[in-house]
Amino acid sequence: MSTVIASPSVRAAARRQGVNINELARILDRQHITLDDLNTKTDQAPTAGTQAMSQYWDVDHAQYGKLSQSETSKFDRIAAANLSAANALIPQVTHHDEADLSAVEALRAKLKPEALAQGVKLTTLAFFVKALAVTLKQFPKFNASLSPDGETLFMKEYVHIGIAVDTDFGLMVPVLRDVDTKGILQIASEISDLANRAKNRKIGPSEMGGASMTISNLGGIGGTAFTPIVNPPEVAILGITRTRVTPVWNGSDFEPTPLAPLDMSYDHRVINGADAAKFMATLSKTLADPRFLLV
Amino acid sequence: MTSSVDLVVIGAGPGGYACAFRAADLGMKVALVEPRAQLGGVCLNEGCIPSKALLHGAEIIKEAHHMRDWGLDFGQPKIDLDRLRGKKDEIVSALTQGLAGLAKRRKVETISGYAKFKGPNELSVNGESLIFEKAVIAAGSEPIALPGWPEDDRIWNSTGALELRTIPDQLVIVGGGIIGLEMATVYAALGSEVSIVEMSPQIAGTADAECAAILHQTLQSEGIALHTNTRVTRVQATPEGIELSCEGQFEGTLRADNVIQAVGRRANGNKLDAHLAGVEVMENGIIPVDEQCRTNVSNIFAIGDLTGNPMLAHRATHQGHVAAEVAAGHPAALDTQLIPSVAYTQPELAWVGLTLAEAKANGVVHKTTSFPWAASGRNLASGGGNGLTKLIYCPDTHRILGASIVGKGAGELLAELVLAIEMSATLEDIALTVHAHPTLSETIAFSAERALGTLTDL
Lengths: 295, 458
Fold this sequence. Notes:
The structure holds 2 protein chains of 2 kinds. In chain A, 37% of the residues lie in helices and 19% in strands. By secondary structure, chain A is of the alpha+beta class. Chain B has helices spanning 14-25, 41-46, 48-66, 81-105, 158-162, 178-190, 209-221, 313-327, 356-361, 377-381, 410-422, 427-431, 442-452, and strands at 3-10, 30-34, 109-112, 115-119, 122-125, 128-137, 141-143, 155-156, 170-174, 193-197, 225-227, 230-238, 241-248, 252-256, 258-261, 265-267, 300-302, 341-343, 348-353, 367-372, 388-393, 400-407. In chain B, helix 1 runs parallel beside helix 8, helix 3 (48-66) runs antiparallel to helix 4 and helix 3 (48-66) packs across helix 6 (178-190).
């Protein structure tokens, strides 16, 4: 006997709607399923409000011209439901800053031959990951998760960093474990391994989830700023866009300086604006002077 | 002549006709193939309904007899076997004619004969071909004939027993399941000296042991000899009667004028050349189906007894509706574990859901509660004897997991508990539901109250 409690009429209605009642109970995290639960749709359960509003854009597009249509993939739908829930339920603020990468780039150039000799392509992203880990160690509130009812804050003693990877079948976020204990070459090597496997859909469930924070790096593509959406249960996400060599006044001269724009969206229920500004200042400082990576 | 239909249903028993009628109501062109002259299958013609007519007679005889203690003596009943048989046949015939009318009104074409498959979309009846888009196999089951027994028309199966040819002085029934027990009840009331031989330690083997024991005692006190843990090792037909050598708890020879074999039923799955349509049939005649009643061939369904145990009409009816709806493109399924069982004995024995033995065997966390009918005012005032209402429930959630009732009208009372379990009702749900007083249904509420510690009637 299934552990879901639902009357025969509810079970029949679920069958008519093509809803797997066990799955629904799992999503809603409870045992009793009623007709009301079925009527507030299945895998978009947290976004019932947006569902209702989206009726306004239920439009016959063909009346305006020729078009084609295709089904969204299951993968896309799950991502859509999660993003909608995150956007609807979490009060988010995005804080912008920039980091001087002169020292990082100099260090990277110096280490590159050594890395290549070990078969590792040393990317700037590896420095961002390490710098973020070092910063998280100093700001425990950013390495935290809020319980769904908002009554408990879990503070993590580990530092795992998620890397958003764009793949042919959608966005994936593999997670690097225990970044705080790893050296820059190992981090670089693990990033390229995870990213390659993500693109080939060869990532196991144990290699996703549980991150302290996620990095969404658009630096290789372009842009000057964006507002990433927090990936719950994490409380913050770091966005990176393209580094630009910018003239920076050093007091006597304009110096050509590579500046990386950083955008961090955070859950305002957990983090306030001053903390976010301090966090970003520390991250920028760490990147500007990689000796802080050792601290 | 070749005709073609959307759906052909093979067998017009309670599963088959329900399926055909439902499919017709859903707009399909339906043919119903049945070898009997009347619709209704075993249930209506030689099972549920005629046995209930005879059991009603038996009940009246017994109740009248017990009324002597109340100062109401009706004397010995005069039994006119021809009229009793006639009454039974009249009831059956009224019902089967009613069914024929229902079929006609729905424009379900009834074809008389045995159906044999030719392929996944064709079968033949009486040499004529019938093309179908979908088929439902509902050809039922038949009584198992024990191997090695002599051919003798004094040996009956359930069908023969219900023909009521004679009232034997001495009747032996082999098999203490529901059918055997009901036949014992009928013939004992009509005056036969009845013995039941049952191989297993308990009559009504799958029922709750405590409730079955109450039925056992009552039948014994009515003069029926019950030999459990006993095997028939040899059967001899002599001019004087049938002699059965027995071993086990009862050792010796039983002599009988007539013997009823009631050791179960065998599925008819392999009588239809179903393999020619590609349908998988197991050696025991059972056709495996999924919860949508589909066989391994997607346009061919099977329902009722030939899909396995429990072989009960109400299961077949529900499967029939499911098969019809699925065939018509609806997402139906037989989505329940709850098929109630009822022995229409005197007293009746009825149960549903988890039994105590199953709970123990499967390690299900459970508790039981019960209410003895000796404490039920309505039972005593109605001349009822021993009885028990017993619930099995989950001690954590108080949800009802199973129920057994033995007593007068137990089969009717059970319905409340089937619904309760389907609705995941708890002890509180039942206890807080007002049951009319004085009724036997109160025993259900009392059982729940007893478990909750709120009972004031015990």
